[in-house]
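From the pipeline queue, job 12 of 40. The input is one protein chain; the requested action is below.

Action: predict structure.
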Amino acid sequence: MANGKPPKPSFSTSRKWSIGFNVVVAGIAVLALVVMANYLGVRHYWRFQFSDRSQMKLSPQTVNVLGSLTNQVKVTIFFDAQGENEIYSLVSALLKEYNYINPDIVVKTVDPTRDPGKTQLLLADSKLTNLKEKNFVLFDCGGHTRIVNQNELSDYDLDAVVSGRSKEFRRIGFKGEMLFTSAIFKVAYPRQVKACFLQGHREHDPELSDQLFGYAKFATILKEQNNIQWGKFTLQGTNEVPADCQLLIIAGPQLPLPDDELEKVERYLKQGGRLFALLGNMVRCKRSGLERILARWGVGVADDVVYDDEFSPRGNDLLTAQLSDKHPVVKSLVPEKLMVRLVQPRAVGQLKTSTPNIDPPKVDILAATSAGGTEATEIRDGVPYRNPYRDQQRAFPLMVAVEQGSIKGLSTDRGSTRIVVVGDSLCLDNQIIDDGAANYYFASQAVNWLLDRPQFILDGLGPRPLKEYKLIMTESQRRSVQWLLLAGMPGAVLIFGGLVWLRRRR
């Protein structure tokens, strides 16, 4: 017979209060641990990247530049975030990485489409009210400003449109890190240097922007991208190379330099001068006399026209099939497989001499043709004639870099002598310098190596390739996927939820 006593409770009142108290204390302890972990995480964190999106992974050089920065740099992204969502996302994500490395990189975004009033106010404060470009990034440090426009940030596949393979310009490279790191360094360290263009022998003119053979685009790269002021001068009469000239540029003289002017150039080099010599090809020019000077610095220049049929986009030009992966001028082009375009260049390489030199200049070959390169040594009336039975076939050097430190007999007032010689001058004219990224980068890297500015030599900061993924479906496949996403998946969730509800009801 069942007794009438009620069953004893599983837990006494004190036991219940004890368990409740333990739960509260444990909850408070977990909350305290979370708060402390977040507090420490804000100040002591370690970030690593799972994604293979190399556009956002900063190079060691950028990290070094940001690590040495002590001044605050204000970065304002003036972008139509919706209309240019793809490039805006890349810019914004990259600049967040800069801010993570150095909080003195202060980033903010202003959308000129959504907030025109704020945009005009900020542009007025920066004295940029006349700026026509709507999408750009502004860098400001102590009143020194630098602008990177949207159209500078991407490389496009132009050949696909020209050849008819595509009807749209496809973005293939993102140049954000290269341009942003350079802009930050320039506004934080605004010291300028001066380059001088030699004139008087029908050289390329840096002031001519409306002619294909002009050098106005190259001059703009010097000033806007590399913080280099430039000017023109002649060596006629008693004129010497200007005392404040830190870089002498001789670009494609079509007339020979007189002996007295060559002596002035030689004197400048012996004083530790820096020379960027872009030699006119033998089709347009004759020997300028610079060949004799360069020979004394260990550089041999041939009187020929070099071809490389396998690497020739248009027949009369070639792409540098081989680039040095050791020299700072071109090694950043190698990982991105960029090739400098030259037009009927002359062979330029290290001169082999039988006379020993105690301390010879260091001559490095920067670029060469493939092993299938050929030369035309016979040129009549500006027309090269190729003779396969006489002309050589091999890898021909096309450009060199020369460095000579302080030695006896040289008065290096400006430091060590540095020279870059290219067997073609058309490679940097208004028509070609923008025809592909390699010529543009080579120009910047060459002048900054000549000026011994390692901070500006963007080692490893070439354009980052953009990966493009396409999903190709037929119309019926597209409709099937649409129904699966809009009805199939939500319907499956509803059915599963209904089955669970019915089972619990039973």
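Job complete. The mean pLDDT is 83.
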